[in-house]
Amino acid sequence: MRKKETLLAIFVLGIGLTGLAGCGHDPEDAEKANSVAFMKTSKNKQPQVWFKGELDDGEIHKDSAINDVLVTKNGKVTDYSMTNITFQQIKGKNNDQLIKLAKTLDKKGLKPVIASQKSLLKEQLITAKKNLKEQQSSKKDWDKLSDAEKDAAKFGSLSDAGSPESIRDAQKQVNQYTTFVNQISQKKYPYIAPKTSPIVAYVNTDDNDKSVTAELLGWQGYTFTFPVADNNDQKDLTKLTHKADTTGRINKMDLNGIMGAPISILGDKYIGYYLYSENDDSQEDTFLITKTQNSKAKAQLDEAKTSGIKKTNTSLTEY
């Protein structure tokens, strides 16, 4: 756990840095390069498009889920994470078409977020009404209790079901969720596009401090969220916020996840990385790939001397 916390601290501190030092190389076009490295191609002045999604039993198929469309340019990235895009939708499209599609689908992706909260509030209203009915039905039993038993109920020794306080609280819940359901149906929620973020990159090198053995890439992601219902009656469950992720979005790669040749999906060629989470059960195995027109292309980790890369002795994989 300490290693993971250290790694997260490195990323969080690094994400705010700009103008990172390093010996630069001319940026390459990911679609045409012989050796494709994420950070190096992200330096291109022309937008580059990458896709991040979930592996199916360690492989990528035409039906594999794509969670993020990443548009890089000048060493920065815009992460469109609500597109629900498919390989069928990106089939045969160039970068300009992909970016336009990502923007369109990301905007549409806000509707399911709102619909999910509407459904949740309606379910909670049903539950609140059921609870109120049960409390009202228990009033007769409450009225039969002695004063001593009622006092004991106040301290948790007996059930207070049917008590005036319980009925009042249950009615309050019904009123509150009725208000929420009405409000969320009437509110207009504007879409906010994700902000562009600097890319943070760290690498580990071998014992000779020459070859890169592991790489961590990270950037700031943004998420639309509603508050989670709890016992705080003052919380507005219809308030939608668009805010930066607490720790950002971290991607770690090592030599085991490098694609040595393009893969073909629905007639398009892709190159990139398999991101395995073998030491972290809370994470899914994912992929990070981009389209290529070069049948001889291969992926590689970024070189330590690439502009924007920082070396660290903290293990990027063993946590």
Question: Care to describe what's here?
Answer:
- By secondary structure, the protein is of the alpha+beta class.
- The protein has a domain at 109-197 and 220-248.
- It contains eight helices and 15 strands.
- A seven-stranded antiparallel beta sheet has the order 5-4-3-2-13-12-11. The protein has a four-stranded mixed beta sheet with strand order 10-7-6-15, with helices on one face. A two-stranded parallel sheet has the order 1-14.
- It is elongated.
- The N and C termini lie close together (7 Å).
Which terms summarize this structure?
Lipoprotein, alpha+beta, signal, 319 residues, single chain
Provide a concise account of the structure shown.
This protein is an alpha+beta fold and 319 residues long.
Class by SSE composition: alpha+beta
Largest sheet: 7 strands, antiparallel
- Assembly type of the chains comes to single chain
Strand order of the largest sheet: 5-4-3-2-13-12-11
How do the helices and strands follow one another from N- to C-terminus?
HEHEEEHHHHHHEEEEEEEEEEE
Shape: elongated
Question: What share of residues is helical?
Answer: 25-40%
Mean pLDDT: 88
**Beta strand count:** 15
Strand content: 15-25%
Rg over CA atoms: 26 Å
Q: Please mark out the parts with pLDDT under 50 across 5 or more consecutive residues, or reply none.
A: 16-25
Keywords: Signal
Signal peptide: 1-21
Protein name: Lipoprotein
